[in-house]
Amino acid sequence: MPHFSDLGLSAPILGALAAEGYTAPTPIQFQAIPPVLGGRDLCGIAQTGTGKTAAFALPILERLATVPRRAAPHTCRVLVLSPTRELASQIADSFRVYGAGMPLSTAVVFGGVPIGPQRQKLTRGVDILVATPGRLLELTDTRSLTLSSVQVLVLDEADRMLDLGFIHALKRIVKLLPRQRQTLLFSATMPRPIAALAEDYLTDPVKVVVAPSATTVERVQQGVVFVPSDRKRDLLATLLRDPVLERVLVFTRTKHGADRVVRHLVGAGIEGAAGTAIAFCSDEERPYLRDIEKLTRCSLRAIPSKIPAARNDSIERQAKAMLPRDAGLASRQASARGRTTPAPQPATAVPPAQRPARWRFVSGVLAPRVVNQT
Prior knowledge:
By secondary structure, the protein is of the alpha/beta class. The protein folds into three domains: 4-209, P-loop containing nucleotide triphosphate hydrolases (Rossmann fold); 229-267, no CATH class; 283-345 and 353-369, no CATH class. The protein is built from 14 helices and nine strands. The strands form two sheets. A seven-stranded parallel beta sheet has the order 3-4-2-5-6-1-7, sandwiched between helices. Helix 2 packs parallel to helix 3, helix 3 (52-66) crosses helix 4 (85-98) and helix 6 packs across helix 8 (167-175). The chain starts with 10 loop residues before the first helix and ends in a 5-residue tail after the last strand.
């Protein structure tokens, strides 16, 4: 079995790994660390949870330590781009843990929080900067950060960044970077757009693939309709008018594509169902509630609580009672208790686009089961 000591890592990093209980590298780490240490560009295809963060963090820390120099003010030596603030924070934490015995600085920047403290962190320069694309451009646009000194660029979860519509931001960022750099790209999948991105950004890269082959659910019938791109949305609207399709999930490649589909369906007279959303919020979660209200620009109406805190089944029962009841469900529940209720009277047929939401209780949170929600 291979060990981290076989990969050419220095004593401080090996000590940090031992302190965390890591002894044997994962496949992505074992295959990626040596070429990255050698300065090669790399394209890694690996699922989340395979240890890919250490696959790029460990050799980057090792290379930075071999050239001990301070970053210039308002610059960084390593730039790691991440699609979400949560992942960015996790990556930054990993760099700090693995580099605990090294005099290297790490900072993380992302949107949704005040930009002032993040500007302050960059004043003296940092060795490693982990960022989401949007906030990074805000900092470069205001000259709080320059990318001219970046030696290593990491694109983590590149497929998610494209799904979230960051392709234009990535193109802007790359233009600000020096041509002579090491670039590492990691993605869970390798669709054509990611292959094109790798071809544009990487130079003679080493390719490491450890992701399992994609599989489909056996009971799901697979089909394809060949249709010109400009007719796809018309075809979707036609399919959604079929009363057989009561609940539909529509997947698009990007969030911008999703917006276009929604606008087209609304124009075709197909709306998502109305409903009620209720959030359960404890005292310690009130800051998150304020963040939600700030993001949605909508104040949530406080509902008086009449729920005892003693029993979970009572909480669920009373929470359900706050919502519109499904007549068929009520009948089945009553029958199960040995009582009967009158069968609901036949109602006038309602077009699919106008049917109301139905509800289910999932893990203690009320979630809508929306008819014809796209």
